[in-house]
Every structure is written in structure tokens, then in C-alpha cells.
Amino acid sequence: MSTSSAPTNPPGPTAATGPSTGPSRPVRRWLVLAICCLSVGVTGINLTIVNVALPSISRDLHASLSSLEWTVSTYSLVMACLLMLSGSMADRFGRKRIFQLGLTLFSLGSLLCGLAPGVGWLIAFVGVQAVGGSMLNPVAMSIIVGVFTDRGERARAIGVWGSVIGITMAAGPVLGGLLVSGIGWRSVFWISVPIGIAAFALTRKFVPESKATRARRFDPFGQALIIVLFASIIAATIEGPRHGWTDPWIVGLIVLAVVALTGILVVEPRRSEPLIDLRYFRSPPFSGANLISLMMTAGLGGFLFLNTLYLQDIRGYSPLHAGVMIIPMALGQAVAANLSGRLVAARRDRLALALGGALLATGAFPLVALSTHTHSVHLLVAYAVFGLGAGMVSPPVSHTAVSGMPLDQVGVAGALAASARQFGSAIGVAVTGSIVASSSAGFVHSSHAAWVVIGGCGVAVLALGLISTSSWARDAATRNGQRLVTHDH
């Protein structure tokens, strides 16, 4: 649905629980990598391909703006809620088994989305897709890490894996435009089905089974609190303009979110193995990286959502034309991610984050004055600059998130950062859509405030990047890491 940065996290949520038990026979490592890339590549396409189909879905299913927001946000919302749980299940029941279950659910959800008779059904089936998707990316990373035991080979494999996700995300808008223009919007979902079936068959034959020697305990109470918190925030944001912010239903959702957050802050620290270990957030780089992830993907999700509707509904472009217009953003992401990766390798995280935040803001603020006749060159330049910013931020975020963390905690920290990215995508679409829906001035004029918010996300990334990579932040992270090691041992 709405995009998020290509994950470059360490292994899945529970990788820290102990060494994995894996196969005793030799495996074809690079073939396993190719299968994992094929499997998560289809989710990368799915993140961006559906945006191009939104106007066609709206016309065919008579969907309101809030329904379109739910169509886009549901995928990221469900992913954000279930990433930690899926990682725990994989470590406990077997990564290959959960990976295959994820492929099955994702393919089934895609098939059902393409058959949806109404927008309510479509949103429900997108949720099925997302449940499967939550079992793919983090589990694929654990499989890759388990197969590639040599550190050098592992680094190259993870680099290839992340590049495939980025390439498929960039290809999504163009492929979506081709499919919607040539076949119809339902085809953007159906394309995932044969790929998912092929990936399932290949996984069954060539991917070895593995699991953690000691998996973390399940935390159903913490999982329920996370679902209630995220879902109530998104629901209140999307439905607020339609019902009114003082409506008892909306007020109740806000109260529910506060209660869930209070439960997380009060109850979770008292559990021996909580779903979310709040001690991590005492590390300024970790807290900053999570906020940066949320802000960057919120801006990116809102950016794609607004532009899709603007280019097709306001400018009258075909889905293919709209997809082609967004290519500069995708190319900007690819170019900047490569440059940013080199900066991170040279320990220049601070520069990469600051430059990325500045580019995000520079790409968004010129669109505040958007009109029905804004010149195409103006749009293309803004798209390219914004894409450069998104690509520049992605690599250093994961590195900053685990800065100062003990080695046996980086998996959990990485999973939390991934959840923040997914929630950011959902809240970005919800907030920008809510701003547009709450105004009677028409889409173009009401979107001006939304573009200010997206530009503000870039400014926030810049500020948080400078703070979270300061010497004070690094020293605090080191002290927190030492406390974690002392407490756990």
C-alpha cells in the first residue's frame, strides 16, 4: 500500500534469543536468497502498485475518500501490529513454515482483493494480505542470516535483498499504471498470486527449516494493547472529519488509545519478556531513529496518496501517465539510497540524516502552492527531490536504531523500528486524507495544509537526525546498552 523504506534491519524480532537450529545438510545459499528476494519483492510491488489504482477503485466501487484511506492504511496498520508476533512465531514454530504460511495468506488475500464486490470487502481482504505480509519480510531476513554464516557474504546478501525491495517498490507505480490502463484495477492484486504460488513451491523445495533454540515467550496482553493503540489512532484520524471530532464514537476512540498507551507504559515493564521492552527507548539514537522512521514514512505515505488523487482526478491523467510521472521520485530514492549507504559505511550517519530531512522538506514545500495548472516540470523536480530525501534517510535509520545496543538485542530493536515505519505509512495517509476531507474548499486548496504537514515531517527528520547522532546521544546509548547487559545477566 503506502510505501515505506526498504528494510535493512538486523534479523527478526527474536533473533536475540539464542542461536538458531538449522539444517545439517549443505544448502544452496544464493538460491535461497533468490527465493527470499522473489517472496519479499512481491510485497515491495504491493506497497506502491495499489496507489495508482485508487481513483479507478473509487469510481468502480463508489468508494469515499475515507474508504480509500482505509484501503491504503489497512495494509501498513496490520503489518505494524503483527511484525513482532510473526517474528516470534517463526522462531518458535519454524521460519520456513511461517514463511510458507505468509506466502499462502498473502496470495489468498491478493486473489480475494481482485474479486472484492465492494470497498468494505476490499479493505477486509487487504487485511488478509497484510497478515501474510507480516510473515514475509522479517522472516526472510532471519532465513538469510541463518543461511549466510560468513559475515562478508551475509552483508552482500542483505544488500541484494534490500536492493530488490527498493527496485520492486520503484517499479510499482509504472507496472500499476500499465495494468490499470490495460486490464483494470483488479489486476494489480492478481499479479501477486502466481508469484506467490511460485515462491511457495520453491520455498518448500529449497529453503531449509530453522528455529531459535529458545524463542521468546508470547505476550498476548502486550500484543492486544498494540493493536488497540494503533487501530484506534488510525480510526479516529480517518473517521474524525466525517463524524466530527466531538462525536462520541471519535472521543471514545481517543480515550481507548490513551488507555492502551497507559497499559503499555504501566503493565509491560513488569513482564519478564514484554512484547516491547521500553528500556530500549532510553537510548536517544533508538528513540530518535523510531521517530525518524515514523516521520519519513508518514511523509512518504501522504505524498503518494495525495499525488495519486491529484494526478488522476484533478489533472485527468491516465493511470499509466500518473505512474510515469512518479518515476523521478523512485529514481531519486534509488540514487540517494546508494549514496547514503556509502556515507553510513564511512560513519557519516549524521550527514545522511540531515541531508535527507532537508531534501524531504525541499521537495514538499514547493507543492504547498499546488494548483490545477501547476507546470509538469515543477512537479517532476519536486518529486525527484522528495525521492532523494526518502532514499537518503533509509540506510542510516536502521544503523542509528541499533547504535549502542548489545549485539543480542539488535534483532528486537530492528523489529521495533520496522513497526514504526509501517505505522508511519498508515498515519501519514490518515492525516493527509483527514486534512483534505475536513475542508469544503476542494481537493487542491485543501491539500495545501497537507503539504505543509508533509514538509514539516522533513524538518522533523532533519532535527531528529542531528539530535540522535550527537555525541550526547551516542554516550547515552552506550550507557543504556551497558545497563541492558547488566540487567539481563
What does this structure look like?
Helix 11 runs antiparallel to helix 15. This protein has a two-stranded antiparallel ribbon with strand order 1-2. The longest helix is centred in the N-terminal third of the chain and has 33 residues. The chain is 77% helix and 1% strand. The chain is mainly α.
Topology, element by element:
Layout: E1 20-21, H1 29-61, H2 65-93, H3 95-115, H4 119-133, H5 137-147, H6 151-182, H7 187-190, H8 192-206, E2 211-212, H9 220-243, H10 248-267, H11 284-314, H12 319-325, H13 327-345, H14 349-364, H15 376-401, H16 410-437, H17 443-468, H18 471-488
Antiparallel strand pairs: 1-2
Main sheet summary? 2 strands, antiparallel
Q: Work out the count of structural domains.
A: 3
Strand content: under 5%
CATH class descriptor name of the largest domain:
Mainly Alpha
CATH fold descriptor of the largest domain: Growth Hormone, Chain: A
Q: Compute the gyration radius: what is it?
A: 21 Å
> What characteristic shape results from the CA principal axes?
globular
Protein structure class:
mainly alpha
Helical content band? over 70%
CATH architecture of the largest domain: Up-down Bundle
How many beta-strand elements?
2
End-to-end CA span: 42 Å
- Name the helix and strand elements from N-terminus to C-terminus, one letter apiece: EHHHHHHHHEHHHHHHHHHH
Uncertain regions spanning at least 5 consecutive residues: 2-19
Strand order of the largest sheet: 1-2
Query: What is the tally of helical segments?
Result: 18
Whole-number mean pLDDT:
80
